[in-house]
Amino acid sequence: MSDIILQAKNVSKHFGGVRAVEDVTLGVHAGSIQAIIGPNGAGKSTLFNTLSGFYYPDNGSVRFKGTDVTRTPAYRRITMGLGRTFQTSSVFPNLTVVENLMIGLHSGAKMAFRFGPLPKSQRRVMHDKVERLLNFVNLTASAHRPVAELAHGSQRLCEIAMSLSTDPSLVLLDEPMAGLATAETERVMDVIRKLHNELALTVLFVEHNMRVVLTLASRIMVLDRGRVLAQGTPAEISRNSSVIEAYIGKQVIENV
Amino acid sequence: MNRNRVGGIIVGVLFFLLLLFTPEIARAIHLSISVCSEVLLFTIAAMAVNLLIGYTGVLPFGNAAFWGLGAYGAGLTIKYFHVGFLEALVCGTVAAFIGALLMGPFLLRRRGIYFALLMIAFGQVFYFVAYRFTDITGGEDGMNFARPLLATRIGMKDESFYYAVLVLFVLVGAFFWYLVRSPFGRALLAIKENETRARYLGLNTDRFLFVALLISAALEGLAGAMYGMSIMFAYPLMLDWHQSGDIVLMAILGGAGTVFGPFIGALIFVVGNDLLSNIISWWQIPLGILFVVCVLGFPKGLLGTALDLMRPRKTGFAFEAQTMHGTPLTADPESNP
Question: Which of A46, A74, B40, B60 could form a Cys-Cys staple with A53, CB 3.0–4.6 A?
Answer without folding.
Answer: A74
